[in-house]
Amino acid sequence: xxxxxxxxxxxxxxxxxxxxxxxxxxxxxxxxxxxxxxxxxxxxxxxxxxxxxxxxxxxxxxxxxxxxxxxxxxxxxxxxxxxxxxxxxxxxxxxxxxxxxxxxxxxxxxxxxxxxxxxxxxxxxxxxxxxxxxxxxxxxxxxxxxxxxxxxxxxxxxxxxxxxxxxxxxxxxxxxxxxxxxxxxxxxxxxxxxxxxxxxxxxxxxxxxxxxxxxxxxxxxxxxxxxxxxxxxxxxxxxxxx
Amino acid sequence: xxxxxxxxxxxxxxxxxxxxxxxxxxxxxxxxxxxxxxxxxxxxxxxxxxxxxxxxxxxxxxxxxxxxxxxxxxxxxxxxxxxxxxxxxxxxxxxxxxxxxxxxxxxxxxxxxxxxxxxxxxxxxxxxxxxxxxxxxxxxxxxxxxxxxxxxxxxxxxxxxxxxxxxxxxxxxxxxxxxxxxxxxxxxxxxxxxxxxxxxxxxxxxxxxxxxxxxxxxxxxxxxxxxxxxxxxxxxxxxxxxxxxxxxxxxxxxxxxxxxxxxxxxxxxxxxxxxxxxxxxxxxxxxxxxxxxxxxxxxxxxxxxxxxxxxxxxxxxxxxxxxxxxxxxxxxxxxxxxxxxxxxxxxxxxxxxxxxxxxxxxxxxxxxxxxxxxxxxxxxxxxxxxxxxxxxxxxxxxxxxxxxxxxxxxxxxxxxxxxxxxxxxxxxxxxxxxxxxxxxx
Lengths: 242, 441
Fold this sequence. Notes:
Chain A contains 6 helices and 10 strands; from the N terminus they run E-H-H-E-E-E-E-H-E-E-H-H-E-H-E-E. Chain A is α+β, with helices and mostly antiparallel strands. Chain B has helices at 2-8, 14-23, 30-56, 71-82, 86-95, 105-126, 152-172, 176-185, 188-197, 205-238, 250-276, 285-316, 319-329, 331-351, 360-387, 402-425. The longest helix of chain B is centred in the middle third of the chain and has 34 residues, at 205-238.
C-alpha cells in the first residue's frame, strides 16, 4: 500500500490533505446511484442513444459487473470504477502539453483549457476511465437548466475524467476557512459517496491516520485495482478474501 | 537479366542525357492533365472531410472509446514509415558509393519529403483541437508555459521536424547544379526563378568540392536522424503501459518496417516514372532487381521481428497480452493478420525469391503487396491493443467513418499530386551525376 510522505503547504505550514477513497465491494449493490449523481454533479453530458451505442457515452464512474458461476447458480459482483487518481499515473507523462498532472493533494487534475485532445492519456489509461468530448456538449431541455455552476462545461475536443469532485473539496475548504477551523474528516463528500445508499464508499484524507478512509484502507480487506501495474491508485477496494 | 538490357542500351554522351532529361520536363500531355485533375479532386474531397470534422466535431470520425487512436495514427505511422524510402536509401547508396544509385536518388529523396509532409499532417488531423496544435511547440509565451518534454509526442515533433528539415536540405543540395543548368537554358521569368533557386551556382571547382562535402555530411547525418525518427514513432507505443505495446523491440521493429515499406514505395514510384516519363534507359531492370533483393531481405528481417514479438507474447501468456493476441489473430482482425503475413512475406518470397519469376511486373506486384501488408501491420498494432484494455468491461470495437476513409484516400492522392507537380518543375534524375567531366570527382 502506498505510504504518503507528509506534505505541508509552504505558506500556511498546514499539512496538505492526501485525498483517497475506499469502496467496500461487499456493500456495493450495483444500484448505480453514484453514476447518476456523478453525471448531474459534474455536468457530464449525455450522448444520446445512437452515440452511446457507438461508444461515445461518458461515465466518470461506472459499475463493472463480474459474473461467477453458471446460471441459475450465479453470483454477480459489482465494482464501481472511477479515475484511480494514481500516484504514478500513466496518463500524466505522456501528455505533450502538461494538461494533466498530480497536484499536492494527490489529485490527477485535468486542465481542460490546456488540453489539445491528443487522447494519449486515454490510450494509456489501464482503467479506461478517461473520456473525450467528441462533440461540443449539448443538453436536451430542460437538462441544460440544471447545470452545476461550480463545474466548468468542457468544450469539444478535450479529455475529461473524474476529479474526486474537486469543486466540493474547494467548497469544503472555503467553508472551513470562513468558520476559522481546520477541515474535519467527512467535510468533503464527492457526489458518488454522498449518494451511495449502501454507504459503500468512504472519502477522506489518507494522510490523517484517524480518518475513516485511513482506517478502511488499514482494515486488511483492502486492495488496489491492477495493482501489479505499479500505478499506485488512490482508490482502494475492500473485499472479503474468498 | 540486367547485363542484357544495359548491353542493349547504346552509350550516351552527357549532352544527350542532359537534353533527354530536360525534355521530359516540357509539355503537358492530356493524360498528365487528367491525372493532376483527378488527384486534385480527391485531395479537395479529403480537405472537405477534414474541414467537416473540425467544424462539426471529431465525433463524426469513427474513433470511439476505447479505440481512441484509429486510422489517423495508423496513417501517421505508415507515411512516416514510407518516408524512410528515400533519404535513407539514397544516403546508404551514396555513402557506400553504389554506382547504380544515379537515377534512383532524387526520386527517393522526393518521396521522403512528400511523405513527411503528409505524415506530419496526421497528428493535426487526429487531435481534438486542431487550432491549438502549436501548444506542443516550445515557443516563448507570456504565461511561461512549456510543452511536456517527457511526452513521446513532443519527441515525435522534434524528430519529425528535424528529419523534414534535413530531408529538404538533402533533396535540395544535389538539385543546385541542375537548377543552374535549367536557368542557363531558359529565358525570362523562368530563368530568374531558377537562377535564384540555384543560389549563385557557377560550377567552379570550389563549389563542386563544397557540394560534395556537404552531401557526404548530410548523408551521414540523415542516416542517424532517419533511424531516430522511426524509433521515436515506436516509442509513442512502447512507452505506454498498454498490453503488447510496451515492448523493448518496438523501436528496431518499426525502423525495419519503415525501411521495408519505404523500398516498396520507391519501387512503385520508379515503375510509374519509368512508364510515364519513358525512362526505360535510365531506370533499368537492374535497378529494380537490386531494389527487389533489398526488399526481400527486409521482408525476412520483418518476419523475424514479427515472429519474435508474437512468440514471446504467446509463450509469456500474460492474460492481458493474450487477450490482445486473441483479438488480433482471430475473427475479422485474424483475416487481416494473415493477409498481412501473405502480403509481407509469402508474396515477396515467391515473386522475388524465385529468380525465374523476378521481373519488373512481379516486383511491382510484390511492392503493392508490401505496402498493403505494412499498412495492415500498423493497423493491427494500433487497434487491437486499444480495443482490448486490461479491464474487460471497457472492451470495444472500431469502424472508420467516411471521414477517415476520405482523408486516407486523400493522402495517397496528395502524394501522387505532389509527385506529378515535382517532375515538371525539377529533373527527376540528377543530370549532373552523369557528367564525367566534373573536376572535383
